[in-house]
C-alpha cells in the first residue's frame, strides 16, 4: 500500500515490494530466532535454578528438555513471506492503479481473515474475535502505511 500510494507503475511497485518482502522475511526470521533463543536461555537458567534449589529428579529434567523451544522451527515458521506475497500476487497483473489498490485491500482482507481463522483454530480461541483482530490490524496497517507514504511522497521529506 505504501508503494502504491506514490508509485503508479506496476513494474516498479512489484520490484520494490519484492525487495521489501525478502528483506522483511529475513528480518522476521532472524528476529524470531533471536527471540526464541533468548527464551531458551531463560528456560535453561530456570531449570538450573530449580535443580539447584529442589534437587529435581533426572527424569523430570529430561522431560523439561523435550519441551524447550526449537530455534530453527521458530525461524522457519515466520509467516512474513506468506503474508507479503498476497499483495504482490493481487497487484502483479493489474495495470489500472486504483483497481490494483482495491485488489490489494480485498486480497489482504481475505488473507487476514484466513490467518485469523487458522490462529483461532490452532490456539483454540474464539474465531470471530481472532478474525476481527487480525482483519482490523491489517486495515490499520494498510491505512497508516498508505497515508504516511502518500503524505511524504506528495510533500517531500526535508531533513
TrEMBL record:
It is found in: Vacuole membrane. Belongs to the CCC1 family. It is a multi-pass membrane protein. It comes from the Eukaryota. One of its GO terms (biological process) is intracellular manganese ion homeostasis. This is Vacuolar iron transporter. The keyword Transport applies. The lineage of its organism: Eukaryota, Viridiplantae, Streptophyta, Embryophyta, Tracheophyta. GO terms for cellular component: membrane; vacuolar membrane. Vacuolar Fe(2+) uptake transporter.
Amino acid at each position: 500500500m505504501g508503494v502504491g500510494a506514490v508509485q503508479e507503475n506496476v513494474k516498479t511497485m512489484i520490484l520494490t515490494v519484492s525487495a521489501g518482502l525478502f528483506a522483511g522475511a529475513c528480518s522476521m526470521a532472524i528476529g524470531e530466532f533471536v527471540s526464541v533463543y533468548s527464551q531458551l536461555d531463560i528456560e535453561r537458567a530456570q531449570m538450573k535454578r530449580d535443580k539447584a534449589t529442589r534437587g529435581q529428579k533426572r527424569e523430570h529434567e529430561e522431560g523439561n528438555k523435550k519441551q524447550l523451544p526449537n530455534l530453527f522451527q521458530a525461524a522457519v515458521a515466520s509467516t512474513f513471506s506468506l503474508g507479503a506475497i498476497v499483495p504482490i500476487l493481487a497487484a502483479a497483473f493489474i495495470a489500472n492503479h486504483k483497481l490494483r489498490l482495491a485488489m490489494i485491500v480485498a486480497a489482504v482482507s481475505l488473507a487476514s481473515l484466513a490467518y485469523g481463522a487458522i490462529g483461532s483454530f490452532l490456539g483454540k480461541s474464539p474465531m470471530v474475535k481472532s478474525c476481527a483482530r487480525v482483519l482490523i490490524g491489517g486495515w490499520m496497517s494498510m491505512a497508516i502505511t498508505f497515508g504516511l507514504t502518500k503524505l511524504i511522497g506528495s510533500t517531500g521529506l526535508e531533513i
